[in-house]
Amino acid sequence: MTFDGTLPESPLRDSTPIDILLVEPDAEFAEMVAACLERDDGEFAVYIEANPDDAMAVIRDETTAVDCVVSGYDMPEMDGLDLLDAVRERDPDRPFILFTGEGSEALASKAISAGVTDYVRKRGGTEQCQALANRVRNAVERYRAEQYLDRGRQAIESAHDGISIIDRDGRIRYLNTAYAELFGYDRAELQGRHWELLYREDDLQKVYDVLLPEARSGRWSGRTEFVRKDGDVIDAEHTLTYTDGGWLVCTVAPPQDEQAEQHLSVKGRAMDEAPVGIVLTDPSAADNPIIYANDKFVDLTGYEKSEAIGRNCRFLQGERTREEPVRKLREAVEAREPATVELRNYRADGTEFWNRVRIAPVFGNDGDVELFVGFQSDVTTRKEREQQLRSSTARLEALFENSPDMIAIHDADGTIRDANRRMCEELGYARSELVGKSVWELDPTVDPDEARSFWNELPMQTPRRFNGELERKDDTTFPVEIHLIRVDLDGEDRFVAMDRDISDQQKRESRLVEQNQRLDRFTSVVSHDLRNPLNVAKGRLELLREDCDSDQIEDLDVALSRMDNMIDDLLTLAQEGERAMEIETLDVTTVVEACWETVATGDATLDTDIDATVDADRDQLQQLFENLIRNAVEHSSASPDSEHGGDTVTVTVGEIDRGFYVADDGPGIPEDERDDVFEAGYSTEAGGTGFGLSIVEQVVDAHDWTITVTESDDGGARFEIRTD
User: What is the predicted pLDDT for the residue at 313?
Assistant: First the structure.
């Protein structure tokens, strides 16, 4: 596309249309989603394709503009991740949102690793469409903002207009190539020279008396006669604008160039409208103060331009700003070099944000730095993700020596650098005997060349899982499941391999193949054949609510919501039995507190009176605690007349001999009903699904534990779980 001399409008305007390609094989569900999206935002235009191949044909058609692809996961010929790979091969940056009824963490992890823009679960009713609409709108705005920034940069450097920035002493500190060529100079010849060089002596007084005062009042624009290097006089369109720091932005366009006539003040407009914060600083002044800040800097930091001009950028720092990135910036300024850092900054209201700061010097003709330009972007979301990954590494280090799993650390050549106690004991080696061995000496299934190639391509902090074998010192072998992650340990590229003996697991899995096939068929029917019609019904019900008024609508809504909850619980019951358990030693308090954050607890209170660990599957133990907590809160809320009921219920997790208990001070469970509470379908709440405690019993049985129901000290329910 050829640049036509005008700047594009900001891509962030709400009125910009957004074209959505919806890839969904269920035609009725797709039509409902499209109707809800277009009703939610009048600027949405939704195009539906049932087949991924047809969707790719639309994307490959250059005459069709698709701003965002929204795709289901379970589809004929290829699934949603396969479609994502095909889209990414053609367009690595196009927004792609996976919209699926599948909700496993494994699928979410695979989608993120494959480069999906966002991941949205299908739910009942139009609320799912509102969530999807927000995700689409945010993804497209980010995508357009990045494109807009790239166009702005190109416009500044390749503008047909001549652009210069002049300091308070009248010397040209920056100019683009077009500016130098317009006056017949090389770029270096004009840097550091006074602007009077370009005027006839008779015209200088007019510049001082008329042009500059008007520019200080806001802006001056008109025609000016300039003198070229060869002595020729040219008549050109001329614009002058002062920055808040007193520097002058000058734009010159030759009148004979019609395209340049349309392209006034590109530099100033691009900087003012850029979607990132931009500042200019003057290193020749004391403390390198800010002399210009654009509007996005104001939006990013909350400081007005008048509050920033004249101050060093360090005023954005605060209590938790680390010294290392600050020192790197300071040293770059002193060395007159570019630098990029990420550091905590503080907005005017005191809130923290992670700021990606890129600075670069602008050199004058004499080789001295005349300006520093700084670009600032909010990268808080990305930094939070990185911190989560780093915490995972920290957990690996903490579990290393005492982990019940075998852990080895090796380098990119396959040489073992360390091994934990369990690895040494299981293989029959002393630690000194293992250190220095190669990975393929312990795993006869490893091909050295393939292993090295795989390790070199493995991204940092991205876990991988696969199966292998380990050979003991006595030459016996056994199968293992290997969890591998690449990390930076004290500046060294290392690979942490956690090996688990899966001999018993493989035996169990062989017996469970037929059962899992039945479960797969069941979950497919529940997840797709039941879920999609239910979602369609809820969506149509919401549309019906807007079109007419009936007393029957609320009853229908309650019934459909209860069906939706039942499907969730049925899937949980089925899916918990599909996978082999991964037993590890878990701190009970840590797991309980994490579960408390995921359950809607209102004003309820948690009291953890336990200092114990338990050997369990993490996901299933979380499922157990979540359901017991939810049971306590919901059943107590259902009895507001009880002495301790309602939202103020207290849930206590404590230690007992050979196990733990979960108790509350709510209305309790009648003694004659305690034998029935774990039966599927049992519920004392009108809207309950009756599967919550059945799931709890399933988790207990899977671990070969026992559970009993009794009365708590405060008259509520008490569930006692014994682990041996």
Answer: 93
Domains 386-501 and 506-575 share a fold: no
Query: pLDDT tens digit string along 469-518?
Result: 999 999 999 998 989 999 887 778 899 988 988 888 877 777 666 666 65
Can you read off the two tokens belonging to residue 61? 């058609």
Sign for the pseudo-dihedral over CA of 636, 639, 640, 641: negative
User: What global pTM score does this model have?
Assistant: 0.35
CB proximity list for 590: less than 8 A, separation 6 or greater: none
Question: Which residues are CB-neighbours of 514 under 8 A, at least 6 positions away?
Answer: none
Residue 683: pLDDT over 70: no
Distance CA 59, CA 65 (A): 8
Secondary structure of 147-180 in HEC code, one letter for each residue: HHHHHHHHHHHHCCCEEEEECCCCEEEEECHHHH
Nearest-angstrom CA–CA distance, 494 and 498: 13
Backbone angles phi, psi at 498, to 5 degrees: -105, 115
Amino acid at 245: G
CATH for the stretch 157-376: 3.30.450.20
**Long-range pairs of 477-486 with CB within 8 A, sequence gap ≥ 24:** 477/444, 478/503, 479/503, 479/506, 480/406, 481/505, 484/458, 485/392, 485/393, 485/396, 485/461, 486/455, 486/458, 486/459, 486/460, 486/461, 486/462
Q: How many residues does the chain have?
A: 724
Which CATH class for the 386-501 domain?
alpha beta
**CB 460, CB 482: distance < 8 Å:** no
Question: Exposed, middle or buried: residue 665 (CB in 10 Å: 0-12, 13-18, 19+)?
Answer: buried
How far apart CA 162 and CA 170 sit, in angstroms, is: 17
583-722 is a CATH 3.30.565.10 domain: yes
pLDDT digits (tens, 9 = 90+) for 621-636: 988 998 899 888 887 7
Give the homologous superfamily in CATH for domain 18-156. Response regulator (3.40.50.2300)
Cα–Cα dist 201/465, whole Å: 77
Supply 293's token pair: 């800040």
According to CATH, the topology of domain 506-575 is: Helix Hairpins (1.10.287)
How many Cβ atoms sit within 10 Å of the Cβ of residue 175?
25
CA distance 94 to 67: 7
Q: What digits encode the pLDDT tens for the residues 206-233? A: 999 999 999 888 889 888 899 999 888 8
What per-residue string of b and e applies to 148-160 under the rule 16 or more CB within 10 Å gives b? bbebbeebbeebb
Closest CA to 626 of 648, 597, 604: 597
The token pair that represents 88 in the structure block? 């990414």
| Amino acid letter for position 449 | D
Strands 162-166 and 172-175: antiparallel
Place of tokens 């780093």: 390
Q: How many CA atoms lie within 13 A of 604 on its CB side?
A: 29
Q: Where are the domains of the chain?
A: 18-156, 157-376, 386-501, 506-575, 583-722
Q: How many helices (H) and strands (E) does the chain have?
A: 25, 27
Residues 317 and 305 sit within 8 Å (Cβ to Cβ): no
Structure tokens at 676: 């029935």
361 sits in which H/E element = strand 352-363
Is residue 424 a contact partner of residue 451, using CB atoms and an 8 Å limit? no
On the 0-12 / 13-18 / 19+ scale of CB atoms within 10 A, 408 is buried
Give the contacts of 151 (CB within 8 A, at least 6 positions apart).
7, 8
